């Protein structure tokens, strides 16, 4: 149970939209997008972006970076309204969360941007894994719709139940070539 009640999506939406707009207006926004895009070899997690149908990093990088920044803006908006890190840790679809990590890996840059935009970037793995997983139509979806006038794109915002099904498909396929536990073990020799 959250210590602080989350604000209404109608309150979160305008704040998140303002935050994303401020980030995009920041003089280093282009650099952030470029560095995230060039960091893409470290994105691929078998339980993240590989769950996207017909995944193609060349075509999907830019829109997926946009979704990751929208997720960060939503979380920053909830934090701004509640001053509560736990409440701000919204459920985010796994592919989006994976690229969100790529954006946060640009630590120096994101800290400067957050400071100039006067926002707090919120992301803590311990609080994101303790709560419910992202599901289509949930609180995160409602906040997203209030911020940007549409629901998150289903291509990237895969609900937890569908994500779990896709992970099982991937795991079975990978086991056919000797990769076990989604890449945590394998039976490949390099001789």
Task: Please provide a brief summary of the model.
With 191 residues, this protein is mainly alpha-helical.
Please characterize this protein's 3D structure.
Strands 1-2 form a two-stranded antiparallel ribbon. The chain has helices spanning 9-25, 29-38, 57-82, 85-88, 94-104, 107-117, 125-130, 139-148, 160-175; strands at 179-180, 185-186. The longest helix has 26 residues, at 57-82. The protein contains nine helices and two strands; from the N terminus they run αααααααααββ. By secondary structure, it is an all-alpha fold. The protein is globular, with a radius of gyration of 17 Å.
Secondary structure elements and pairings:
Elements: H1 9-25, H2 29-38, H3 57-82, H4 85-88, H5 94-104, H6 107-117, H7 125-130, H8 139-148, H9 160-175, E1 179-180, E2 185-186
Antiparallel strand pairs: 1-2
Helix pairs in contact: 1-3, 1-8, 3-5
Number of separate strands:
2
End-to-end Cα distance = 52 Å
- Give the % helix: 55-70%
Number of helices: 9
Low-pLDDT regions:
none
* SS content category: mainly alpha
Largest sheet: 2 strands, antiparallel
Q: What kind of assembly state do the chains in view correspond to?
A: single chain
Rounded to an integer in angstroms, the radius of gyration calculated over CA atoms is: 17 Å
Strand content: under 5%
Shape: globular
How do the helices and strands follow one another from N- to C-terminus? HHHHHHHHHEE
Strand arrangement, major sheet: 1-2
The residue-averaged pLDDT reads: 87
């Amino acid at each position: 149970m959250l210590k602080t009640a989350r604000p209404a999506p109608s309150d979160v939406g305008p704040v998140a939209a303002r935050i994303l707009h401020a980030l995009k207006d920041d003089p280093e926004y282009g650099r952030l997008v470029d560095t995230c895009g060039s960091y893409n070899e470290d994105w691929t997690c078998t339980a993240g972006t590989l769950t996207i149908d017909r995944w193609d990093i060349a075509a999907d990088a830019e829109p997926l970076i946009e979704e990751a920044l929208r997720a960060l803006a939503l979380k920053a908006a909830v934090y701004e309204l509640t001053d509560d890190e736990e409440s701000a840790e919204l459920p985010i679809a796994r592919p989006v969360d994976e690229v969100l990590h790529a954006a946060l890996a640009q630590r120096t840059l994101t800290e400067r941007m957050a400071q100039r935009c006067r926002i707090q970037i919120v992301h803590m793995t311990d609080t994101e894994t303790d709560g419910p997983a992202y599901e289509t139509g949930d609180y995160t979806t409602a906040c997203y719709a209030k911020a940007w006038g549409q629901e998150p794109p289903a291509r990237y915002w895969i609900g937890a139940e569908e994500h779990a099904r896709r992970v099982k498909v991937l795991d079975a396929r990978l086991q056919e070539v000797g990769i076990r536990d989604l890449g945590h073990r394998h039976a490949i020799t390099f001789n």
